[in-house]
Specification:
The protein is of the alpha/beta class. It is about 40% helix and about 20% strand. The protein is built from eleven helices and eleven strands. The protein has helices at about 5-15, 20-25, 45-50, 60-75, 85-95, 130-145, 160, 165-170, 185-190, 210-220, 235-250; strands at about 30-35, 40, 55, 80, 100, 105-110, 115-125, 145-150, 175-180, 195-200, 225-230.
Length: about 260
């Protein structure tokens, strides 16, 4: 149940096209639906602008199937993160419009009526960081943001980034995904006026401690306006980027 659907339902009651009892029946699953092993938050799209997302890790295929089926009845779009090819096939059987984004490990059913807004720029330090960056990109796009990307422009060859500074200047928000030393968000943060979201990845040799070194570097950034997500949390980075981009749209400052 999203705001548009709720308004349409109430309008039908007002003009007499739907009885109060029929409307109550449709609203019966609000504010949540109890599946026994999961309590689906159908109010979330009204509160936060996007339906509940399925985090697939740790769930059985049977649980994911039931959750996806229940969400699909109430919402568009649908997003399932950390998905496997097996989970993708399972959701595609529910809806043939489902698309598996293999690098991002996301299954998405998009709202075809949705108009993408603003401009989110996703940057990676290296090619190995692309899977996390793709999770950022697909998440923000499915939520409704226009997303561009700039991959493999890390500090080992900083001229690759500086040669595209115009791309940075036109973004409403930038997500920088980096492993190893995790320095790139500080560099980008020192070049732009828009918010920068840093996403550390677990890519790197032993002393990177599975992304902890990059995380600490980003938390200690001397550049202003840099916020930091958890290690490999591309979904979180994409969601936050979309919200910032959406706020700029509401203020009339979207580029």
């Amino acid at each position: 149940m999203n705001q548009e659907r709720l308004e349409r339902l109430l309008s039908r009651v007002r003009v007499g096209a739907l009885t109060v009892a029929e409307a109550v029946d449709q609203l019966r699953s609000l504010p949540y639906e109890d599946l026994g092993f999961a309590s689906l938050d159908h109010h979330r799209s009204i509160r936060q602008g996007f339906p509940e997302v399925i985090f697939c890790e740790g769930k059985t295929p049977t649980q994911i199937h039931a959750i996806a089926k229940a969400l699909r009845k109430q919402h568009r779009p649908l997003l399932a993160t950390r998905a496997t090819p097996q989970i993708a096939r399972l959701i595609k059987r529910l809806d043939r419009r489902a698309v598996f984004h293999r690098d991002a490990r996301i299954v998405a059913i998009r709202d075809v009526r949705q108009r993408l807004i603003g401009r989110v720029l996703v940057i990676t330090a290296g090619t190995s960081d692309i899977p996390v960056a793709e999770e950022v990109k697909v998440t923000a796009e499915v939520m409704g943001s226009r997303v561009e990307h700039l991959y493999d422009v890390g500090v080992a060859g900083i001229h690759r980034l500086l040669g595209r500074r115009d791309r940075l200047a036109h973004a409403n928000v930038i997500v920088v995904v980096a492993g190893m030393d995790g320095v790139l968000p500080s560099v980008v943060g020192g070049l732009v006026s828009c918010p920068v979201i840093a996403v550390p990845t677990s890519r790197g040799y032993g002393a990177s401690f599975g992304g902890l070194a990059a995380l600490l570097t980003m938390l200690n950034s001397c550049a202003a306006g840099v916020g930091v997500m958890n290690i490999d949390n591309g979904f979180g980075g994409g969601c936050l980027a979309h919200r910032i981009n959406q706020m700029k749209a509401g203020s009339g400052t979207v580029r």
